[in-house]
Write a structure and sequence with these properties.
Strands 1, 2, 3, 6, 7 and 8 form a six-stranded mixed sheet that branches. Strands 4-5 form a two-stranded antiparallel ribbon. 20% of the residues lie in helices and 38% in strands. It has 149 residues and is of the alpha/beta class. The protein has one domain (2-141): 3-Layer(bba) Sandwich (D-tyrosyl-trna(Tyr) Deacylase, Chain: A). α1 (39-51) crosses α2 (99-115). It is built from two helices and eight strands, in the order βββαβββαββ.
């Protein structure tokens, strides 16, 4: 499971001009599910993201987590995080999970964050979405549950 995590002042996602998810200060998480992913990957990434210390404290050091600042989280599915561009110019997506598996793990990830007490907004799995991100910093972190980076 892969995630692009961005510290945001606000973020939203719209479908056909209608906003379906919106947060103020917190984290924008673009989430990709791989074909080998399981509930173990869900748990690892949820815990990692909840505890990431990427918000500044009173000394302007990144020491606070989204939990510490009582921030919100917007999660948007993005299978393109599993794009393989090593050959040619057209990405391959053979490492991405098929939709049935991906939507289940995506929903488990969102549910886990909610269980942890977060306000979580989402896009719509599989939809063509317009995502607005006010990246604060900018701070962008790449995570992979298999720890390949």
């Amino acid at each position: 499971m892969r995630a692009v995590v961005q510290r945001v002042r606000k973020s939203s996602v719209a479908i056909d001009g209608v906003t379906v998810g919106e947060i103020s200060q917190g984290l924008m998480v673009l989430l990709g599910v791989g074909k080998e992913d399981t509930e173990k990957d869900v748990e690892y990434l949820a815990e990692k993201i909840a505890g990431l210390r990427i918000f500044t404290d009173t000394e302007d050091k990144m020491n606070l987590s989204v939990q510490d600042i009582q921030g919100e989280i917007l999660v948007v599915s993005q299978f393109t995080l599993y794009a393989d561009c090593r050959k040619g110019k057209r990405p391959g997506f053979s490492d991405a999970a098929l939709p049935d598996q991906a939507v289940s793990l995506y929903e488990q990830f969102v549910a886990r964050l909610k269980e942890m007490g977060f306000t979580v907004e989402t896009g719509q799995f599989g939809a063509d979405m317009l995502v607005s991100i006010d990246n604060d910093g900018p701070v962008t972190i790449l995570l992979d549950s298999e720890k390949t980076f």
